[in-house]
Amino acid sequence: MLNMTALKVSLEKGTEAANKYALGVSLVIIPQIYIAVVLTKYITENPKILETLDKIGVVIFIFLSFYFYRESKKSKIKVEGLQSKKENPFLAGITLSVLNMFAIPFFCGTAVLLDSFNLFSFDFISILFFTIGSLIGTFYILYLYGKFAKTIQKKTGKLTKDINIILAILTALVAVFTLIKLIYTSLATS
User: Fold this and answer.
1) Domain extent listing, the chain
2) Which residues contact 135 (CB under 8 A, 6 or more apart)?
3) What pLDDT does residue 161 have?
4) Where is the signal peptide (predicted)?
5) What is the pTM of this model?
């Protein structure tokens, strides 16, 4: 979702706006990484925390799906060339990154995987380097999405023109699959 939005920001507002968006996303992942790494052992020992995060995630993804669907309807009404949105891409990056429910589980999983191969320890230096590396990697991949947005659009054609509806469908699917997982888990434990 964050990658597709970087592409959208670049196509609608230009590369500089996409870079601001990438910076906003990258700044928010710093505390997400730290929280994920520090709490990894605690979270894996307490499945109720993951269940609560899943419930919150369903609500957030339903909200995002509605938001992107509404935006897709707005973009069909607007005349091309008259789009002068005053939305701040930096704040959009921060907001979407805060709402991103995949970050903490992703970084938890990555830390556990690295730890299982003895490539990571939960000391300050390891956490610091993991955080810096993830920050640089996140910013760089979003920067590349912004830089090559027009090329990606040429290669994918109409797909990127309907990006809001694609994002709406993706977030709705994530919400539905998470809800199904929660129902299945609650039925299995009953």
Assistant:
1) 2-189
2) 26, 29, 30, 33
3) 62
4) none
5) 0.66
